[in-house]
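Progress report, Aim 2. The chain analyzed during this reporting quarter is listed below.
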Amino acid sequence: MEKTILEPRFKDSPHFKDFWTTGNGKQLIDFSGAEVSFKDFDKFSRYFYHVDELGDDIVKEVYFTKKFQEASREIEQYIRKGVSETDDVPASVQSLFQQTQAVPNWLDYNLLKSGAELCMRSNVDSLISLRDYCLIGGYDYAYLNKPLIVTEALKKGAVKRLSETLDFWVNVTRYNALEIHAKGYEFAIKTRLIHSYARLSIKKHYKNWDTENWGEPINSWDMMATYIGFSLVFLHSLKKLGNTFSDEEERGLFHLWKYVGYLLGIPEDLLPDDKKQATEYFYLWTAIQPPSDKDSILLAHSLLNESLENPILKYGFQKKMLRFLHISCTWFLLDDAVCKRLEIPKVFGKSVFPNTKRFINKIYNNVVSRKNRIAKGNKDQMQVLKDYLRVTQQSNFH
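Predicted structure tokens for the chain:
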């Protein structure tokens, strides 16, 4: 196939223009001071057809030559014990672990700590932001969702998908989580190999994959956009919910996700250092994404109905109330245009809960010490994760 020359094909489409001139994109520009243009489009667009070859090579050499459980146990040993240059291991294992075990010279452990503390002290607002802005907002980008659709994520159910996301996010955002061989480091490596396994399986089994339009499955540019969701979009959501954060915490959040991205095999020049860069990078990527399609709507409604299916809450009225609260937050955090495209149901009094939350946050942040907020947030988030792991029976990464 001839090398595809990618253009910002949706830059003149109403959904793109509206997002960046009147919607959340405009808010992101105002929030970050970004200067958006297409001058760097060619520099970044090549990553739409770029993948993590180090991860793919391990999957080919280890996972595709052994039973899955045997391969997983082997990889876990490498993660936990490390790989030295003299170890007798497959060449692909050497290559990947020499990269992940080489701590980049830009890494600042104090900034990692500040980023983790912001994630923890934001408590339930962190979880609301992940679910009702980052995840469901991502469903508006039709091509980004194609790997989820073709790997039949809908059949697995939203409870399991949400549990997997929560398991990953919590474990990479605790104190010292990303030190070599620590739990967050382990989750990052395993997630990286899950992406490679899914990508190679799609290329092998799904003959109708439209590489020209959709990019490579789980390509590096889409990965960049996903992890900007965990940093820029997440931070914007916290602000909308009435949270405040210091410059140090803000820099720490971007630094944390830059390092997670590095461990996941995302090229370093795709990993933004701050909200200005992140917004400018995100602007370019959105120009190659069409708006919601029928698959987007299915994914969004599956997530909305997760509250009704989840056995954590015992009574039906509790489940319906939780669904109402998430719908309210979705309308509050996302553009009205995005909500309409995803067919988010309209509910009466949808602004009451988010606005009450904003009011309470402003009082809580002034009354309770930062140290106590971090401790309580960590405890509450770990409890939510424990509840999800209980109903899904096991950790998602073992």
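Residues 40-52+107-176+203-391 form one domain. Residues 219 and 340 are 28 Å apart (CA to CA). These observations will guide the mutagenesis work planned for the next reporting period.
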